[in-house]
Amino acid sequence: MIILTLLGANKYSEVSYNWQGRQAKSHSLIQVALDEWFPESDMLVLATEKANDAHGQMVKALVPKTEIVPIPDGKNTDEYWEIYNRIEQNIPAKADLVLDVTHGFRSLPVLALLAVSFLRAAKSVNVQHVLYGAFDAGDGKVAPVFDLAPFLTMLDWASATSRFVETGDGRRFKELLVSSKSQLLKDLGSDLERFTNAMVLNRTTEVTDSARKLLKVIQDLKQQSYTLGYQPLRLLENKLENAIEPIADEDPIRSQFAQITRYSKQQQYAQSIALAREWMISVRIWKTDGWFSENKEERQLAEEWLSTFAKVLEHKSEAEKQAEKAGDTKRQKHEEQKRLKVIPPAWLCFIQLWQRVSDQRNDYAHFGMRKQKSTTDTTLKKAKSLPGDLRNAVRPLGLELPEPL
User: Fold this and answer.
1) pLDDT (tens digit per residue) in 139-181
2) Are 86 and 69 in contact (CB under 8 A)?
3) H/E element holding 145?
4) What is the pLDDT of residues 186-195, one digit of tens each?
5) What is the H or E stretch that residue 335 is in?
6) Contacts from 262-265 at CB under 8 Å and sequence distance 24+?
7) DSSP-assigned letters across all residues of 207-220
C-alpha cells in the first residue's frame, strides 16, 4: 500500500482527525493520522520547496518511512505537467493507493486526483481511498475525514457511457451495477452485457430480443428512484433508450436495418456490410411473401433471384459490346436499356446495390487480397454511405425507413 499525500506551507492547527470512527491522536499534520490508520504503508509526500522547508523535517521525524517527492509550485502549464510526471514516476503499476488531499496547495489536489484517476486506467492502480480532512467541519478539537473515492465512479460512468455510444460495448455498465441492491439495476447490467455480446457475435435475432428486454428494463427504471451511488445513471437513461429503441422494433426488417446503422455509426463496417447483404435477402422474401424468414431454402432462392439479375447488370450483350467498340454511344445506350428491361423497374436500384454490397462483403472477407480490390478511402466512403443507400434502394419497393442519424 502507498499513501500519496500533499503538503502545504501553511501553519496548520492541531486537531484530532476522525475517520470511520477511528480518532487519531491530535496533531497539526494529517500525515500522523494516516500513519496511524495505515501503519504498513509507504508514504510519499508531494511538497514544494517552500512546503518542504516548513514541514518536511517534522514529517520525516514523525513518520520515518516518509519519502519527500519535490514538486514545482505549479505556476504554469509546464510545471503542472512536471507535477504529473513526478506522481506517475513514483506510483508503480497495480499499486494499492490511498490519496490524501487535506493539505493540498491551490489546485494541486485537483491535479493529483486527475493524475491518479488516469493511473487507474494506464497502470491499473487500485485507488482504495481519497481522503480529505475537513478541519472547518470540526469543532476545533476533532475534525472529520471524508472519503471521496466513491466519486471516482463518476469517471467510470463517463467511460462506460462513451464506450457504449462510440463502440456499442455496454459491458462496463455491468461492472458498475453488479453490486447494486436493486434487481432492476442488476438486470440492466446483465441485459447490456447480453446485448453487447449478441452484437459482437453477429447474433442478429438475439440482438433484437435482448434489445426488447433491455428497453423494458430502462423504461421500468425511469419510474423508480435511485440510491445516491447510482445517480449518474439517471442522466444516461434517455441516451441508452434512444440507442436501443430502434433495434427493439417488432418488425425484423426495421430492427435489422437499425442494427446495420448502428454497426456503421460505430465504425464496425465489416459487420455492417455483412448484415446488409443478409438483410437484402430478407427484404426480397418480405416483398414477395410478406414475412421474414430464416429458412435456408427460402433464403437461398431469394439470393439466387437477386444474383441472377445482378448478372444482367454485369454482362453486356454482344450488340452492346459492338456498339461500344464502334463508339456508337446512342446505340450502346439503347442496347443497355434493352438489357435492363429484364429487371423489374422497382428492383433496379436495389439490385444495383446488391451487386455492390456483395462485392464489398467479398472484399472484406478476403482482406483485400484480390486483384480488383478497393482502396481504403473508397471502401470507407462506401461503408459510410451504406445505411443511406439501403434506405434509398427500398423506397421504390414501398418501404420507408428512418433516416440514419
Assistant:
1) 888 999 999 888 888 888 888 888 887 888 888 888 888 888 8
2) yes
3) strand 142-147
4) 899 999 999 9
5) helix 329-340
6) 262/168, 262/199, 263/168, 263/199, 264/383, 264/384, 264/386, 264/387, 264/404, 265/404, 265/405
7) HHHHHHHHHHHHHH
